[in-house]
């Protein structure tokens, strides 16, 4: 059994992503992990078409105002005319044309910017599409119903894994929407040191949204997990400040990620808790429409979905080709014992027959 497990390529990929993807190959690995590369190859020329589209002037104006806020001290985004800001404007505008019903969400800016640091705009666009459609569907929609559901799931998991911190947060009325949107919507890109953010993205693109839950639960445990840490947190402001100012020695890259992967949260736990919280939400909010089934748990599920789509396409092509061949194949006419009128000189046996009216005509009798 261990040898079978270790020989599994998917397990080896997950293990390497947990160790951290080397920076020299991260630009190639991320599009492959999330399915952005396959999506780009299936839609040649689509990105250029979206970029050339007019776009909604309202969204373009909003995006233009937000661009300078994304990693303002990074050399790639210093100049408004530089490749960073212009590329981000292009990617975000293309997404609003691609998904006009969603439009633009400010939290998508850091995602697009971080992707552009590692790859070309077209690749960054398709990776962003995959994150928004398969990893975090519904997160960036106007109602943010998916994030609302996940906040309830997060509190339920926190109550089970870190009851002391959960009790403190509830006692002081610290709603999860005061800290969770910045964590989950931006994939911690505005919260944690950059090397840790890259490691989180490596694991997230491999294993899915459970990585975000693990990181969030670990941060609360590091900040509020003991009575000593809770000392001095007498209200909402102090508690939130505690969450924002985790000591640097607790944020060492390798040690932090090892603790993240030790948090006992599995895909099955998330699925079970999602179902339970979904029932509660629909009782209190009859208008709640989000369906978590559209979320895919990591690169393996995305790869399987891609293979299934390709299989369906192959079947459709085969059935279409078969139907075309049936239409083109003509049945050989049965001419046994029949005669055909010949207007020219016949090539076979010719027999002259006398017409009753005195006229003659040629007939060709054929035998098969």
From TrEMBL:
SMART domains: TBC
Stretches assigned to the Rab-GAP TBC domain: 20-208
Xref: SUPFAM superfamilies: Ypt/Rab-GAP domain of gyp1p
Pfam families noted in UniProt: RabGAP-TBC
Matches recorded under Gene3D superfamilies: putative rabgap domain of human tbc1 domain family member 14 like domains, Ypt/Rab-GAP domain of gyp1p, domain 3
Any coiled-coil regions, as ranges: none
Positions with biased composition (Basic and acidic residues): 348-358
InterPro entries (UniProt xref): Rab-GAP-TBC_dom, Rab-GAP_TBC_sf, Rab_GAP_TBC_domain
Region (Disordered): 316-360
Lineage: superkingdom: Eukaryota
UniProt xrefs under PANTHER family: RAB GTPASE-ACTIVATING PROTEIN 1-LIKE (PTHR47219), TBC1 DOMAIN FAMILY MEMBER 10B (PTHR47219:SF17)
Identification of the protein by name: TBC1 domain family member 10C
């Amino acid at each position: 059994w261990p040898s079978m497990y270790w020989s599994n390529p998917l397990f080896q990929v997950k293990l390497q992503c947990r160790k951290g993807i080397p920076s020299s190959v991260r630009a190639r690995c991320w599009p492959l992990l999330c399915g952005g590369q396959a999506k780009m190859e299936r839609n040649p020329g689509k990105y250029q078409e979206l970029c050339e589209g007019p776009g909604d002037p309202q969204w373009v104006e909003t995006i233009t105002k937000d661009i300078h806020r994304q990693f303002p001290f990074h050399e790639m985004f210093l100049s408004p005319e530089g490749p960073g800001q212009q590329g981000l404007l292009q990617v975000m505008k293309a997404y609003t044309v691609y998904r006009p019903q969603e439009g633009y969400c400010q939290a998508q800016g850091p995602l697009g910017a971080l992707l552009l640091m590692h790859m070309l705009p077209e690749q960054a666009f398709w990776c962003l599409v995959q994150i928004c459609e398969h990893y975090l569907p519904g997160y960036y929609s106007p109602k943010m119903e998916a994030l609302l559901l996940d906040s309830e799931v997060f509190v339920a998991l926190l109550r089970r894994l870190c009851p002391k911190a959960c009790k403190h947060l509830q006692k002081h009325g610290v709603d999860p929407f005061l800290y969770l949107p910045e964590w989950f919507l931006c994939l911690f890109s505005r919260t944690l040191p950059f090397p840790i953010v890259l490691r989180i993205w490596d694991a997230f693109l491999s294993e899915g949204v459970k990585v975000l839950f693990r990181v969030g639960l670990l941060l609360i445990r590091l900040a509020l997990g003991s009575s000593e840490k809770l000392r001095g947190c007498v209200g909402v402001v102090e508690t939130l400040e505690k969450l924002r100012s985790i000591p640097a020695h607790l944020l060492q890259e390798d040690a932090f990620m090892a603790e993240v992967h030790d948090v006992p949260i599995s895909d099955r736990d998330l699925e079970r808790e999602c179902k339970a919280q979904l029932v509660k939400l629909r009782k209190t909010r009859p208008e709640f429409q989000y369906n978590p089934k559209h979320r895919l748990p990591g690169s393996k599920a995305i790869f399987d979905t891609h293979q299934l789509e390709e299989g369906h396409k192959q079947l459709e092509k085969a059935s279409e080709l078969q139907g075309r061949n049936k239409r083109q194949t003509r049945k050989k006419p049965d001419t046994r014992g029949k005669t055909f009128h010949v207007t020219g000189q016949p090539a076979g046996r010719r027999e002259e027959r006398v017409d009753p009216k005195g006229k003659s005509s040629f007939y060709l009798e054929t035998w098969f």
